[in-house]
Amino acid sequence: DDAPVFSTGIATICFIDPGAAARDFDPTAPSGHLLVVINQGSYPITFDSDGIAADIAANQWGFASYDGTTWNLKVIPTDAGASGDIDNLKLVRNAEANKLDFFTRSGGAAPDASNVISVAIPDGNGKVVRRRAAAYLSGTNQIVKADATGYWGYITLPGSQYPIYPYAIWDGTGIVFAASGCPTLEKVTTTTTATDPNYMLLENGSTYDRNAAHYCQLIGWFEAEYDTGNTPDWTIKADSCGVGTVAPRYLTDIGMTRIDFSGKAKPGEVEVNGDSLPLVSYARLYTFFGGAIYGAVDSSHFNLPNPRGRTLRIWDHGAAVDPDRASRTDRGDGTGGDVVGSKQADGIKAHAHTASGAYLTAAGGGPYGITNSAGYYYAYENAPSVGGNETRMINLNVGLFIRAY
Q: Sorting pLDDT into bands at 50, 70 and 90, what band is 83?
């Protein structure tokens, strides 16, 4: 099964099926020769020859050149399911709802010598395919979310759908699985505070010592509800698990707000207009807000903010620029003051007007006028009313839309 299907004096193309297990491939060739190896099987091929040892995972192909001393191999992902950088990985919610299993697609269980998970992980100079074929550093191939723990700052919230992102870490010897609340990590974070947004929750039982020099690769996503009224507190959504190296926009863009000049919502958006939305249909947006902070008609709905007809003021957030920040009014859930969503009525800054002119008579004189401290009266006349219905700056109407699903 190693026979080339095409060969010239300078290039050879081979289609190889490793069979029922991973296998080594040690080619020989003259200097200057090019070799293309296409893995047609379900198990990896280890290209192991003259100065190189690297894996060509299932459904990948490798492009190798030989200079007479050393092979130079470039592995090209082709079809690896959800992502070309990931092979034979399947994320599965355990029967215990707070646990996520890292299984192989080929075996439907934890990886072993016959069912290997491969991930292309950065090394500072590109990506190198790494393998997980057994338990490593006592890890159990499983993420376990503990009760009463608000990982990544998530709060207990009935109906919540919090996005969580699994990673593969390469420590120089093997792959360690982890999960984070951040989908864009490139290196391991060393914080051990579970509520930090970039905290990495290691696979259960792992003895891995977090190292900021180690690279990692996003390998998927899933969603979970955190509600301390449930048992267990964390419930992973069984149908939310996906495999890939780029998180889907329906997770990362929820809550993104857009100013618009057409008055039309894009797919996935709703107008920010104070509407009451059903929690069951917009759980991700509800989670993004952190609950019904703009009010709700009942426990199964939540309100959008309603900025229509208002100008937007950037949250003071401790800058002490807004002199009346402490007296800002309720945003909808009883919370006012220096918080996002709180309101202010229109107003005019306190000021005084002065008048001057010759006095007409001493104190006790005519019935009209403005008195001064010496008791003299001055003539006055009411100024005519001017202006419209409000004090405003030159403006232009725009629409405001939020990514909701």
A: very low
Backbone CA torsion sign across 175, 178, 183, 184: negative
CA distance 95 to 201: 20
Q: b/e for 188-220, b at 16 or more Cβ within 10 A?
A: bbeeeebebeebbbbbbebebebeeebbbbbbb
User: For residue 286, what is the enclosing H or E element?
Assistant: helix 283-289
CB-based contact 256:186 (threshold 8 Å): no
CA–CA dist 161, 275 (Å, integer): 21
Rounded to an integer, what distance in angstroms lies between the CA atom of residue 118 and that of residue 243? Answer: 12
Give the position of tokens 């409000």.
390
Q: State residue 379's pLDDT score.
A: 55
pTM score: 0.69
User: Is the model's pLDDT at 366 over the cut of 50?
Assistant: no
Exposure of 386 by Cβ count < 10 A (0-12 exposed, 13-18 middle, 19+ buried)? Answer: exposed
Phi, psi dihedrals of residue 228, rounded to the nearest 5°: -70, -5
Query: How far is the C-alpha of 119 from the C-alpha of 170, rounded, in Å?
Result: 10
> Quick one: three-class SS letters along 92-159?
EECCCCCEEEEEECCCCCCCECCECEEEEEECCCCEEEEEECCCCCCCCCEEECCCCCCHHHCCCCCC
Rounded-to-integer distance, Cα 187 and Cα 103, Å: 23
Beta bridge partners of 177: 168
**Burial of residue 103, with CB atoms counted within 10 A of its CB: 0-12 exposed, 13-18 middle, 19 or more buried:** buried
Q: Which two tokens stand for residue 289?
A: 């807000």
Structure tokens at 354: 């002065």
145 versus 380: the higher-pLDDT residue is 145
181: Cβ contacts below 8 Å, ≥ 6 apart:
151, 152, 153, 154, 162, 163, 164, 165, 197, 198, 199
- φ, ψ at 160 (rounded to 5°): -70, 155
With pLDDT > 70 as the criterion, what percentage of the chain qualifies?
87
Tens digits of per-residue pLDDT, 46-80? 887 766 777 787 667 788 888 888 888 877 654 33
Task: Identify the three-state secondary structure at position 218.
Answer: strand
Distance CA 266, CA 276 (A): 19
C-alpha to C-alpha distance for 42 and 115, rounded to whole angstroms: 8
Q: Which of 345-354, 364-373, 384-393 has the lowest mean pLDDT?
A: 364-373
